[in-house]
Amino acid sequence: MTVPLLYALAGTVLCGIGLLGLLWLSHLLRKLLAFNILGSGVFLVLVGLPQHQGGPDPVPQALVLTGIVVAIAATALAVVLIRRYYHLSGMTSLEDEPPARKGGRQ
Amino acid sequence: MTLYLMAGLLFTPLAWAVLTLLVGFTRGRLITWAGILVQVLVSLTLWLAVSRDGGFYYGLGGWDAPLGIELRVDGLAVTFVLLTAVVASACAIHAGVYIDPDKPWHRYFWPLFWFLWSGLNAVWLGGDLFNLYVGLELISLAAVGLVALGGSVAALRASIRYLLAALLGSLAYLLGVALMYGQFGTLSIAGVVFWLDQHPVPAGSGLALALMIAGLALKTALFPLHRWLPPAHGIARSPVSALLSALVIKASFYIAARLWLELGEPLGSLAAAQLVGLMGSAAVVWGSWLACRQPELKQVVAYSSVAQIGYLFLLFPLTYSVSESVALQARQGMTLQVISHALAKAAMFLAAGNLILSTGSSRVNALTGVSRFLPFSLFSFGLAGVSLMGLPPSGGFAAKWLLLQASLGSAQWWWVLVLLAGGLLSAVYVFRIYRASFLDGPETDQFYHPPRSLELVPMVLALMALGLGLVADPVLSVMALPLEDGSR
Fold first, then answer.
1. How many CB atoms lie under 10 A from the CB of residue B161?
2. Is the dihedral of CA B154, B160, B163, B167 positive or negative?
3. pLDDT per residue over B252-275, tens digit each?
4. What pLDDT shows up at residue B67?
5. In this structure, what are the phi and psi dihedrals at residue B227, rounded to the nearest 5 degrees?
6. What backbone torsions phi and psi does residue B419 show, to the nearest 5 degrees?
7. Residues with Cβ < 8 Å from B4, sequence gap 6 or more?
8. For site-directed labelling of B238, which of B56, B252, B301, B305 has its Cα 20 to 30 A away?
9. Fold type of domain A3-89
10. Bridge partner residues of B59 (DSSP)
């Protein structure tokens, strides 16, 4: 097993952990952290996998930089929304319906 | 000439997003009108240019791939660019009157609107997988912000749910991109196709395509991944719902369709194609059924979107290992369905917004007596419904007719049943709204009458959806224009 392949496999494992967290955890901040782990896993696969043609490949490195910017923007938006949601409703998860709203969600 | 057009198309939305960020809602509206004028003119000129001279590749800023961003300007892309210009301008004009300028957070509507538009243009024209990802994320983040503009707890819930679903979908797509780059060493779709022409198909490379399409299906809200859509589209302000249902979900579908049409034949399988078609059919039936049962007007329209998305995914089985003419019919049906659904659903959401404004309640039952005093808004709603049901001469009819022919031509008769059932069920939910509005209500007119401009916008969109069936041929001929340099 080569080192780059090891990176890619580690990335896959991280993706799995992130996916499980995103689906199982109910606390919104934990969900967001799980999303970030999932994102890191994807980036690791993206830089790790294409290296096996002899030497590192510069293109994925540039892509991952852009990807990190996008992930940070998404995280920032999510944090703002979660904070506002917490201030208004006092809840940290989406599971229990607020009493004011009935119907709509089937 | 093309240089200016492309610069105008991509640069103005970003510039206008920044400009409108600096001012309040009312001034932002004035600035937006100027921007809309530019965008509509540029889109129309580009469409005319492509329909005259054919499509081309365009390296942004003179940089070619792989370093630069290469845009693929073909007939289908410019058709969708023009569609975006039409629908987005209509929604912006409606929003300018509809949205209350006094709430301080509403000033962010215009910047988000422009970011959304720039993301949409980037997706229609994007030629490589990674820039499509960036465009998708731009769209998702702007759309989530627009949903959150509602400001209430329910709106925030819906937007967080939407954000989580959209992010998961994007990451699944990006993982697919990573695998594809690792396998083929290129990011351009054309490059992957070229590679596959030269080499035998490596084992397991269908996984990348499956991941990408699964992520995009989640973002398009294909059944059974549709749960995030009705709350988000139902709770958002009506012009926002119109934008989301008409354009945003089409962007992720467009990428999935492009991937399937170019890579489905070598990388896909018959089982996968039939599975996607089955999920689409389930969406048609289940979405329409739930639309019939919703107590709130905008939820009816939102579930109808879930159903109409289902028709789009019939493209997958109808283009896999079938004859050339059947695949062409399926592609044309899909394009017409995208266009007619965009126009009709935008009209329907805007009309629903007007009705909610008039009755002061979002419930279907509150429509009692509306037909007597507010026939105009109701009429736009009904015209849009005609296109969704697929009655002639609407665009929806032409689309479903083509899909029907493609199903029969490829001997996949089971999709015909889905098309028929979907048409009947959509008639049920549209007539349900009508039934509620024709019930005898109070003798006097207690309804708020929205300004004429609010009523006119959905009417124009609904008439366009209705008339699309009559001009389907010229639209389809532009859409089919090939690229000058197809080998790259």
1. 19
2. negative
3. 999 999 999 888 888 888 888 899
4. 67
5. -65, -25
6. -60, -40
7. none
8. B252
9. Helix Hairpins (1.10.287)
10. B70
Over its C-alpha atoms, chain A yields an Rg (Å, rounded) of: 18
Delimit the domains of chain B by residue range: 278-488
d(CA B55, CA B48): 11
Which pTM was predicted? Answer: 0.91
Element (H, E) at B70: strand B70-73
Least Cα separation, residue B282 to chain A (angstroms) = 16
Highest mean pLDDT among A53-62, B263-272, B439-448: B263-272
The tokens describing B341, both together, are 């659904």
Q: Classify B65 as helix, strand or coil.
A: coil
**Chain B residue closest in CA terms to A61:** B178
Instruction: Give the integer Cα–Cα distance in Å for B78 and B59.
Output: 16
Asked whether the beta carbons of residue A59 and residue B66 sit closer than 8 angstroms, the reply is: yes
Asked if residues B454 and B383 have their Cβ atoms less than 8 Å apart, the reply is no
The one-letter code for the residue type at B414 is W
| B479–chain A nearest CA distance, Å | 31
**Are the C-beta atoms of residues A10 and A2 closer than 8 Å to each other?**
no
Among A37, A42, A44, A91, the residue to mutate for chain B (most B Cβ within 10 A): A42
In this complex, do A98 and B153 lie within 8 Å of one another by their Cβ atoms?
A: yes
Q: Residue B99: helix, strand or coil by DSSP?
A: coil
Out of A92-96, B164-168, B175-179, B359-363, pick the least confident: A92-96
Contact yes or no for B230 and A103 at CB 8 A: no
Instruction: Give chain B's length.
Output: 488
Q: Which residues contact B139 (CB under 8 A, 6 or more apart)?
A: B116, B119, B120, B123, B248, B251
